[in-house]
């Protein structure tokens, strides 16, 4: 090496400068990432704060006991009653109908796609299935009201024009792709060596799918069911359109009823004075909904921890 | 050369060719498997020994594009295991397999061993209890797990899992047991336990074992086949193969000049 090349070699000081530059860039990126994370966390906290503070004023006027035990929900009448069970029953019944349809159907589709369908069928079917998840819920709502309800009325002549049954069935159809797609991912992630072990014992495809692949993928399946439940509980438009909006404490899916979400839509669209008790019911109902989905999410986390994949 | 009694045949490959789509992986294999003996398959990676092993229980049928030619005759009934008329599920009911990496099912220890019995429709509690205990004893793991049969199998150690997989295969009394490098994922102590077990098991069942480890082949087997590039180069008694191989290529591999 000749002597005049020595000046090109990094000296201690310019190496440090380069590091400082790199550190600065690293820090900038870190700050951006942290900022993005913070915004979403703060948004959530903000929503919780608004719900809790407005609900707090609501519970200054209405006792929590009445809220949970009253059997009428007439917040806008002169003789106001605030029995949230009325809305919870509508929410649970419609979600129950939806999940009774979506969980078995989604799981069966997932088993078929993951274990039986040849790759060509799978590559065709999955995007189509996922497309079904992209249909706006308002379209599903009118589909329930104008197509499914008349068909159901053909078999059940006593079914009213608005019903939890019809809305729930269509909600189930809407949720099927989510459950099928996520469950299929979970089952395909089960290693081939596990299936080979089952086949080597003389099991058929169906026996392997049910007794080995499904138990191995159970935490993923549970996660997809929880997501389905959250979708059903939080679904608004289909219920607002097809289930009727009258508050009705019932466990019978053949009746019309309001759910927590459809009540919120109904009231939020009216012009209630800010700070009135009617206005505050929106937040009390919203908080209740948040609690319900929170319970399911915690349940989902717990299931995932208990049955985590150990292969 | 001294004349000795040839043991009874359990199976015999006759002019066996195997193709992964267009690629030929086995070339004209002829080889006997003797009853209640341990036969080891050795050879460098990619020589086709696992492919050959997996032909016996028709594992290749699980993937599209695979093709067999020739026969594997299975005795005493002289069935051709590869015949399209033979149901692979029937074949797998008679032939057990233990894999390279332990693959217990996500079930309890008890249910893992009972799996094959349940597949065969056995649901009687007493029969299951008896057969599970017998199989776990046969796989030398009974003492370690007898108090925790309801624990999940994937929580066992690697060596225990592999012995559990052997118990799972034994529970249905297979006539032939296939081992596909059963100790390659295990530590030396667990490996020793499995080797001892193989030695013990040959009293009851015919064993075909693929191994990368030549010492292991020498320790556990009665017969050894050396395979190279899809061909069976040499088959013979293990002593003869290791002490005085007839083929130069076998000798090169065994002495470590190749492979």
Could you write a compact summary of the structure shown?
The complex is a heterodimer of chains A (about 300) and B (about 260). With about 300 residues, chain A is an all-alpha fold. Chain A has helices at about 10-60, 65-70, 85-115, 120-130, 135-155, 165-190, 190-200, 205-215, 220-235, 235-240, 260-270, 275-305.
Fill in the CATH topology of the largest domain in chain A: MetI-like fold
Low-confidence segments of chain B, ≥5 residues, pLDDT <50?
none
The CATH class label of the largest domain in chain A is Mainly Alpha
The greatest interface between two protein chains, and residues involved on each side, is: A-B, 23 and 29 residues
Largest sheet of chain B: 6 strands, mixed
Provide the CATH architecture of the largest domain in chain A. Orthogonal Bundle
Could you tell me how far the N terminus lies from the C terminus of chain B, measured between alpha carbons in angstroms?
30 Å
**In percent, how helical is the residue content of chain A?**
over 70%
Measured between the Cα atoms of the first and last residue of chain A, the distance is 57 Å
- Globally, the shape of chain A reads flat
Largest sheet of chain A: none
The number of domains of chain A is 2
Mean pLDDT across residues of chain A: 88
What gyration radius of chain A follows from the Cα positions, in whole Å? 27 Å
Strand count of chain B: 10
- CATH-defined architecture of chain B: 3-Layer(aba) Sandwich
């Amino acid at each position: 090496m000749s002597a005049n090349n020595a000046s090109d070699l990094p000296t201690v000081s310019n190496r440090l400068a380069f590091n400082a530059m790199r550190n600065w860039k690293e820090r900038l990126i870190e700050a951006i990432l942290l900022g993005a994370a913070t915004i979403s966390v703060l948004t959530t906290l903000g929503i919780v704060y608004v719900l809790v503070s407005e609900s707090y004023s609501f519970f200054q006027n209405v006792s929590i006991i009445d809220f949970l035990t009253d059997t009428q929900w007439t917040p806008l009448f002169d003789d106001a009653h605030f029995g949230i069970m009325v809305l919870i029953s509508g929410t649970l019944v419609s979600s129950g109908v939806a999940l009774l349809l979506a969980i078995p159907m989604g799981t069966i589709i997932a088993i078929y796609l993951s274990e039986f369908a040849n790759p060509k069928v799978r590559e065709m079917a999955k995007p189509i299935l996922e497309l079904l998840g992209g249909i706006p819920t308002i379209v599903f709502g009118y589909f329930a009201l104008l197509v499914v309800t008349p068909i159901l009325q053909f078999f059940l002549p006593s079914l009213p024009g608005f019903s939890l049954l019809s809305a729930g069935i269509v909600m189930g159809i809407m949720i099927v792709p989510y459950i099928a797609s996520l469950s299929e991912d979970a089952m395909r992630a089960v290693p081939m060596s596990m299936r080979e072990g089952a086949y080597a014992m003389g099991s058929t495809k169906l026996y392997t799918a049910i007794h080995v692949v499904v138990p191995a993928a159970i935490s993923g399946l549970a996660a997809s069911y929880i997501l389905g439940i959250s979708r059903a509980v939080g679904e608004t438009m289909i219920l607002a359109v097809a289930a009727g909006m009258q508050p009705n404490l019932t466990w019978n899916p053949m009746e019309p009823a309001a759910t927590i979400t459809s009540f919120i839509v109904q009231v939020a669209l009216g012009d209630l004075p800010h700070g009135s008790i009617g206005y505050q019911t929106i937040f009390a109902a919203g908080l209740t909904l948040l609690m319900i989905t929170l319970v399911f999410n915690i349940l989902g986390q717990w299931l995932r921890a208990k049955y985590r994949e150990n292969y | 050369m001294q004349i000795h009694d040839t043991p009874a045949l359990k199976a015999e490959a006759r002019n066996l060719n195997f193709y992964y789509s267009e690629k030929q992986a086995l070339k004209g294999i002829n080889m006997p498997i003797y009853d209640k003996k341990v036969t080891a398959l050795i050879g460098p990676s990619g020589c086709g020994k696992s492919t050959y092993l997996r032909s016996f229980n028709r594992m290749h049928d699980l993937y599209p594009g695979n093709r067999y030619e020739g026969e594997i005759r299975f005795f005493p009934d002289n069935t051709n295991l590869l015949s399209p008329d033979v149901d692979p599920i029937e074949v797998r009911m008679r032939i057990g397999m233990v894999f390279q990496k332990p693959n217990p099912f996500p079930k309890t220890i008890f249910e893992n061993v009972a799996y094959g019995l349940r597949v065969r429709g056995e649901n009687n509690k007493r029969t299951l209890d008896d057969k599970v205990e017998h199989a776990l004893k046969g796989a030398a793991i009974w003492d370690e797990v007898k108090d925790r049969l309801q624990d999940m199998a994937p929580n066992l150690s690697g060596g225990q899992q592999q012995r559990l997989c052997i118990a799972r295969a034994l529970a249905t009394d297979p006539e032939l047991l296939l081992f596909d490098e059963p100790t390659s994922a295990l530590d030396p102590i667990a490996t020793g336990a499995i080797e001892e077990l193989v030695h013990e098991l040959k009293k009851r069942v015919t064993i075909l074992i693929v191994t990368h480890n030549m010492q292991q082949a020498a320790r556990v087997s009665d017969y050894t086949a050396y395979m190279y590039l899809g061909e069976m180069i040499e088959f013979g008694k293990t002593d003869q193969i290791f002490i005085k191989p007839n083929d130069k290529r076998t000798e090169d591999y065994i002495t470590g000049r190749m492979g």
